[in-house]
Amino acid sequence: MDALARLGMESDLPRDIQNTEAIDTVFEDCKDFFIKRDGITYAGNHLLIDFWNARNLDNPDQIDATLRRAAEAAGATILHGHFHHFTPNGGVSGVLVLAESHISIHTWPERHFAAVDIFMCGVCDPNLSVPVMQELFQAGRVEIDAFKRGRVSSTRHTGR
User: Which residues does the annotation list for site: Cleavage (non-hydrolytic) (predicted)?
Assistant: First the structure.
């Protein structure tokens, strides 16, 4: 324990994981980016977006630039991005790591299809990303499934 204290790793948190009152007090003092809206507290908004009959699905640089603009439109902070082109004229897979979570994409040019996953916490609005991506993909059909992730229960978990 002394070695951990010298490294600054000693914790004042209780070791008893059943002590939820103490843990709740610690979390109340921490700034987090959970969303509180319409009486619900949750971690973030998660969109699963399918672009069908889409174009421009095989250029990783163009997709990277568009997803960066989409993240900025949503109010997100870009930390890192990586995009991979599978073959000439092949699909692209990539991810933008955001301070508020991520945007990922997988494209199938041969099927004119792109699958996009956007998860954002805090004040970001992932819905504002969709029109930016649609400018590039010009999809004939866009399907969106939306989820509230990490809903906080109003009752305490007792471990039973």
Answer: 100-101
